[in-house]
Backbone:
């Protein structure tokens, strides 16, 4: 089934891209089109909207009716990237200068704001009945709001001394969980009038998959790197409050904890390669990497329990999506 | 009648403030409440939401049903202030450091994003039927989007050499026009099922009142100042593309135009008091100030013509609001 999901992503990706060009026309002379398409052109695999459409279809709905909502999720994703790049002071994304670097902070903030307006617009013109449209607007707005709440915790979690796994989980459930679940919830709403029993379960799924996805992402940074020229440990350089950092902070003895916090609170440009290596050694000493792997796998297993409670005959699609997301989504 | 509007603003202001505290609770430990209330506590006269409620009542509706929408307008207004202060690099607002200065750019952007989520939320929980709720969401989103489009022009209009009155009007119709009209349009939608004939006229009114309001605001900067410690000509220091600048750019002879552009493109901190005085002299030489006053008054007169076409027995309220806004709103 995994292959089918990849196949579907390709097919739906084309539909999403076509509608994207309609909702946000390129080459307009308005100081918005240019910075936004500078960003959009850098790529993106349209996984989030595709998962919305797959869910809708597998639950018996017409994915064309969910297309505008699916696109809104994709636009929201890109809006967050624009604002996050400013907030994190990231200068490069997919080998291109970020929007704020190329067009200035003012244009980057404002372009993000514009994307959000077009995301709501896309839902507002969806070809579906009013009651379901309102429901879609509700879950979309909830997702937007919760993701912003998670981002607030993230911004203020860099190099915090008393960081815990509990704080980490709260952050990623907000910042990643709603976001991952929202497309599936929307797909379910478009597919059926009797969605109430389904959507609660999908939100619960998000609360498990969000952390699972994020922990895998944290691990990728320590193994193959996050695609920033093969650099390993950029989260450590940035002082990002990863699962590894949270877990080790709780487990480590005083001396190790002190070293850890000292390095994680350093400015990015002051963190040396030896510092990164030292943090990795501390992580290994307390078995943080194995523990993280185990923890993420447990979350996926727990998500299967939730999926089994979803009132649908097609549970396989949710399991496939859960696996796909945890393994492949970056 | 003018006194009645001021009286209504006071009464409705209290209701708005109470609901604001419900929708955005102060003193939450979430890194959002604190920066947002740092900003909200600096004041604001709640004129925009009050005008929504006045319109609703005068058109025969129940203003309590419009309260959530009115609040959304107020929240949107504050969201723009948060983001604009970063974009314009303004360090002080109402004698307090701006949010980005006190809490950093990351928290300021994210707090603005959160405000927007809560504005949509406020509309989504309005106690009104679904079809009207959707209509309110549509006009709110349109207003948000057009204001952002106007801001894009504004960000990129500083010290532009070939600035014209036409460009100025396009900018302020987008950035100020929708915004001023939106509360009235929403009030009309809540008041009546047969709002179609009314709302087109109110949008048209916004396209006249937006520039009228903005031109008055441009003039205030040259007479009593904008409340920044009595400083006259801060728009000139900032190189802001005001009506005066647009008009004089078109009228001035080559030498004057050259001086004008030279001063307006200087960095704020490099603009001397003599520079400001020189620009004021050029404005006066071409009668820009009198022309601006006349132009704004003509826009108000044109707005009366539109108001006379609004299918309601109570046209006085719109004329009072138009006058009030053009004269008092800052």
Residues:
């Amino acid at each position: 089934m995994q292959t089918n999901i990849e196949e579907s992503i390709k097919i739906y990706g084309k539909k999403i891209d076509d509608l994207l060009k309609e909702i946000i026309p390129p080459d307009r002379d308005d100081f918005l089109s240019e910075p936004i398409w500078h960003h959009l052109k850098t790529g993106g695999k349209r996984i989030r909207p595709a998962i919305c459409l797959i869910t809708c279809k597998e639950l018996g709905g017409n994915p064309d009716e969910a297309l505008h909502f699916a696109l809104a999720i994709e636009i929201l994703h890109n809006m967050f990237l624009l604002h996050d790049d400013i907030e994190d002071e990231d200068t490069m994304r997919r080998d291109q200068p970020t929007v704020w670097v190329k067009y200035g902070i003012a244009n980057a903030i404002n372009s993000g704001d514009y994307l959000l307006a077009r995301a709501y617009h896309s839902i507002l013109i969806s070809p579906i009945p009013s009651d379901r449209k309102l429901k879609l607007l509700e879950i979309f707005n909830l997702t937007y709001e919760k993701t912003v709440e998670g981002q607030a915790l993230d911004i203020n979690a860099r190099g915090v001394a008393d960081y815990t796994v509990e704080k980490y989980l709260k952050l990623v459930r907000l910042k990643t969980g709603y976001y991952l679940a929202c497309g599936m919830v929307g797909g379910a709403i478009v597919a059926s009038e009797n969605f109430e029993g389904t959507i609660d379960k999908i939100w619960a799924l998000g609360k498990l998959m969000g952390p699972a996805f994020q922990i895998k992402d944290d691990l990728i940074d320590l193994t193959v790197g996050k695609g920033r020229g093969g650099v390993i440990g950029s989260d450590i350089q940035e002082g990002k409050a990863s699962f590894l950092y949270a877990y080790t902070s709780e487990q480590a003895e005083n001396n190790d904890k002190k070293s850890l916090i000292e390095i994680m609170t350093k400015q990015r440009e002051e963190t040396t390669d030896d510092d990164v290596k030292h943090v990795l050694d501390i992580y290994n000493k307390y078995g943080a990497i194995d523990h993280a792997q185990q923890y993420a796998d447990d979350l996926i297993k727990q998500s299967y329990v939730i999926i089994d409670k979803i009132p649908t005959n097609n549970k396989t699609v949710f399991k496939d999506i859960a696996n796909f997301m945890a393994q492949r989504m970056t």
About this structure: The beta strands of chain A are 92-93, 96-97. The longest strand of chain A covers residues 92-93.
